[in-house]
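Q: Two folds, back to back.
A: First:
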Amino acid sequence: MRFEDLPTPCFVVDVALIEKNLKILNGVMQRTGAKIVLAQKAFSMTALYPLIGEYLSGTTASGLYEARLGHEEMGKETHVFAPAYREEEFDEILSICDHIIFNSFSQLEKYKDRALRSGRKVGLRINPECSTQVGHEIYDPCSPGSRFGVKREDFRPDLLDGVSGLHFHTLCQQNSDDLETTLRAVEEKFGTWLPQMEWINFGGGHHITRDDYDIPTLEACIKRMQNRYGLEVYLEPGEAVALNAGYLIASVLDLHKNGIGIAILDTSATCHMPDVLEMPYRPPLLDSGLPGEKPFTYRLTGQTCLTGDVVGDYSFDRPLVCGDRVVFGDMAIYSMVKTNTFNGMALPAIALQDKDGDCRIVREFGYEDFKYRLA
């Protein structure tokens, strides 16, 4: 099947572009000795886990189900962090996870001994109180009142026995200069305890595979922790694994006008690309321009009853007609994992594009997926 023959709506992930990203990440690992694991919260397409496992060290999870997914489908290192663990799930987490990271000293006190008896590596998330994000406060773990990590003023050195590593995650789609800034804050606030640790986890949010990403600065940060404190270094990017490697194909169902041309698509920002509304951001669209840049401007919208189900305004070289296909870019990350069936919207099919350009559908969804989600 060729790209133009796929049904709509459909997510398409390009295997060659995924592998290109993986080679960049693996290059960092080879040059520095650091370990990079996939943050499944951004991308968890298990059909590609065998390929990802050839290049990366394993997976990291935000809870039991993601941990199971990484353990069962990739079978390499499995890390987990949660703001709080559920008692009824913790034994299973112990059975499948190598690194268990706690968000607070109270969680550490509750579960540490069990984790150590199971032979697991125990870590603690710290809050370096160093905000480097601009315009994405919803994604800033160092913002005032954040629930993530232990601040210096609340640190309990008397409870560190058995803790082998520290974890911080403060970045979101950022370059390595922000990591460098954060690392200085980590050393300033928690450097006293770094020599007694075995490892440090830089968390995620590193846009390592972006064209303008400064890899030498990242590698200098890694080597600084290795050389100064003798630490093994982990990174857990999610977006970088599948950045710019996927598409969402949609079709124009109807055309409408209300001060601007309106195209109603068979996809939905609300259901199929919710980060468009949550971030918010305007996703790239192939063969289009900014509003007014090309002769014909349209507002691309979804099918749901939510008035704000709007993807964005785009311009085209010719008028749109019903049946036209539009292709959104960078749709492998977060969009796929956040889809929902609000209003009874069907989930998009999922396809892989092989290196020779051939496509194959790996999953299709129907009424039963909607019906039994809520029972």
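A: Second:
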Amino acid sequence: MTDENLPSVTSIPTYKAPQIEAGRKLFSRPVTFLLGVAQLEQLPPEDKTEICFAGRSNVGKSSLINAITGRKDIARTSNTPGRTQQLNYFDLDGACHVVDLPGYGFAQAPKDIVDTWQNLIKQYLRGRVTLRRVFVLIDSRHGFMKADLDMMKVLDESAVTYQVVLTKADKLKKGQLEKRIKEVVNALVKHPAALPKIFATSSEKNTGLAELRAEIASLL
């Protein structure tokens, strides 16, 4: 890892300098908001690799997208859970599409609307041919919660490859973080579509972002 404050455990992937540089170059390119998708019919053509970020409401998806792209407000952040109410597509200079999924588990919206979001997410995950990787964001302070496990079950059943990204890693002491990482990795053994290598990140401290960029660059 490039951040000496992270625990040295084998479940966290390491990358060589050329891979880190490839990730840096990729995310130094222009990134723009493409469109918001509220219905499957609005999805763009399947002509580019897609990677997407999923997670419980307020887990820090928008903050992470802003951080890895080096932008302050490409993805709108809010303290109000459930603000992202559609699949938000971002175009990374024609190289790929980055998709921010609606938060799951809780939202300040009527149940029928929340159910519509969740149905849209499930249909997208099960039918998108160009979807290469899903990054499931988990708050490092809390670990897996029921809503996370429900989403991972959908991904397992859909055979969509995913990796766990721990957010807010700076909120834990090194020993606590290492324990959390081991808990997560042990739990992933039961999930056939999950990759065992996870990321521990902090959008505030820029921890783990170079490695995440390198992983995404390797998928293109």
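Q: And?
A: Residues 17-218 form a domain with the Rossmann fold fold (CATH 3.40.50.300).
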